[in-house]
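Contributing new complexes? Match this layout with zinc ion.
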Amino acid sequence: MGELGGGGGDLERERRRLAHAARQVAARGLVVGTAGNLSARAGELVAITPTGVPLEQLSPEQIVAVDLAGVVVDGHGSPSSEHSLHLGVYERYGAGAVVHAHAPMATALGCLLDELPVVHYQMLELGGAVRVAPYATFGTAELAAVTLDALEGRTAALMANHGAIVYAGDIDAAVERMLLLEWACSVYWHAAALGSPRTLDERQLAAVGSEIVRRGGYGALRGEER
Ligand SMILES: [Zn+2]
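Output block (do not edit by hand):
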């Protein structure tokens, strides 16, 4: 534990938050069993869910800590098989937390689409239309590379015939963002079942952006209009 230094307290807090978030993700139906993984950055370390443990049963002690190169520095299990994808998101996009899940709607649309179009203005929080990263074998450097590219200018991506990934400033916001992505996929799904959904254009999205600024932030996208 000595290696953790002053970051140890932050790490313990992130472990508790991450275990709670993992159970939330399972309870909200975003994953079945072990079909997802979560991580959060604590200084120079990343707390990440272990491989092979169902998220609904996860306890803080089971969370593994790795350094930014992926070397395990604390914990008993092995880090998630997608840990290099998670670490890539921290390195390239400066994220605070990452959630990857085989969420049902997102996974289904990732079998069909090349991009999830902007069918609702709340998708601006995801960066606009959500790209679908090409299929590659789970846990590989190739999957990490194509998924990181799909996240360019976005906070979410679908992964073809696999699942979805989001990142945010902290783990609670990342879980909310995964729920938003799954909801947007559900909206598209239902609309597309009846016809060809209208999508929002650049001008309409720019107007949403201006309104968010005027109202003081992204909270405006989450119900301040109620
Ligand atoms: Zn996966």
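Reviewers usually confirm one structural detail per submission. For this one: The chain has one domain: 2-222.
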